[in-house]
Amino acid sequence: MVTPPPLSRRAVLLGAGAAGLLSACSAPAAASDPGVVDVFGAQQAGIARPAPPQRHVDLSVWDVPPDIRLGALLATLGRRAAALCAGGDAALADLPPARLTVTAGLGPRIVAAAGPDLPGAQDLPVFPGDDVEERHRGGDFLLQVCADEPLAAALAVTELTAGTGLSPRWRKTGFRGPSASDGSARNVLGFADGIVLPKSDAELAADVWLGGPPAVRGGTIAVLRAMRLDTAAFHALPVTRQEQVIGRRKATAEPLSGPELDLGAKTPDGEYLIPADAHIRRAHPLTVGAGVMLRRSYNSDEGLLFISFQKELRTFVATQHRMSEGDALLRYATTTASATFLILPGFSADVPLGHALLA
Q: Can you spell out the DSSP letters for 126-147?
């Protein structure tokens, strides 16, 4: 796939005025329905809410041809997402919405054309060990659709993208196991994932949601990494060795240091209880010196769909570099797709999706 040419600011903004002429987003009031997630708010749904995350994800990455009126497209997408997520839309073939959410983001090429200094204008570097083909690297537009029913998510993607003129780059689906009381779920390696996350409003404000100008305020930076896991080799290890690779007990998810995570805890012989190359040590914010990521990852047929949201791209980049220097888990994981996106701020019935950035 040939990477589209750079966009001018005029091309990105083309259609922004038309977006305001489209009918406002409107969705039937269904706040009392536990299967309905409100699409409106300061932040888009599908990131911190709902909690716990839905059981299924349909991730697709697209290129934006130069003739697309991006402002109008985003406004239309927001309007259709509101109708789909509220339930009762014919496009879902009479299925309940099943906590359906639609989350949209723009790639660095698009963001840089709107403002080269904006968060999200910087692309991801290539990391050691990556095995990513060109068509699976980057992209202009992210559509993350989550639901507890996989068919609802698939039908929503079809409805949202049909006739848009977007050019598909790659698409992958994933699933989660049942969520524990802390919101974590087991991955295909058999270990609990998603334990150390920002959860409170204060933590989310500190590490996830963007501040600054209205164009990005309430948005966040997403990183997507599809990973091929050598599950056979990992499961062939004795459970005690698996636990040393991860740094947690497999059955209980308790850190090897005891009930509380203590990276300094040692044996009487002076050995770290959590090995120096254990995943939870190499990826921990204290050892990385970066912020906390909100991870919303899913299992896939290939292995893992890693999805993280953070205020600064540096949070992920620094973490990945630290892992590349000696994380034992990376012996069993190979990244096959990689991209970053500016997740647009939330929207409302009166303010279309993407309006603040493109107006």
A: PPTT----GGGB--SEEEEEEE
Strands 141-147 and 185-186: unpaired
Report CA-CA distances (Å) from 95 to 40, 51, 57, 87, 103. 22, 21, 16, 8, 20
- pLDDT at 16 (0 to 100): 41
CA 77 to chain centre: 19
pLDDT of residue 311: 97
Enter the pTM of the model: 0.91
User: Among all chains, which residue has been given the structure tokens 């409106």?
Assistant: 40
Task: Tell me if 76 sits within 8 A of 16, measured CB to CB.
Answer: no
Residue 324, both tokens = 């590349």
Q: What is the pLDDT of residue 21?
A: 32
Q: Are the CB atoms for 109 and 309 separated by under 8 Å?
A: no
Per the prediction, the chain carries an average pLDDT of: 91
Q: What are phi and psi of 191, to 5 degrees?
A: -105, 150
343, containing H or E segment: strand 333-343
Listed in sequence order, the residues at least 6 apart from 156 whose beta carbon sits closer than 8 Å to its beta carbon are 58, 81, 84, 91, 92, 100, 102, 145, 147
| Two tokens, residue 318 | 């620094």
Residues of the chain with pLDDT below 70 are 1-32
Q: How many CB atoms lie within 10 A of CB 154?
A: 15
Percentages helix, strand, coil for the chain (3-state, rounded to 5) are 30, 20, 50
Q: What is the DSSP letter of 189?
A: T
Rounded distance between C-alpha atoms, residue 270 and residue 276, angstroms: 12
For 231, counting Cβ atoms within 10 Å of its Cβ (0-12 exposed, 13-18 middle, 19+ buried), the class is middle
Helices and strands in the chain, H and E counts = 12, 11
In one letter, which amino acid is 92? L
CA 113 to chain centre: 23
222 in Cβ contact with 316 (< 8 Å): no
Which phi and psi angles does 303 have, rounded to 5°?
Answer: 160, -80
Phi-psi region of 149 (alpha: psi -120 to 50; beta: other; left: phi over 0): beta
Contact between 240 and 330 under an 8 Å Cβ cutoff? The reply is: no
Q: In this predicted structure, what is the pLDDT of residue 24?
A: 35
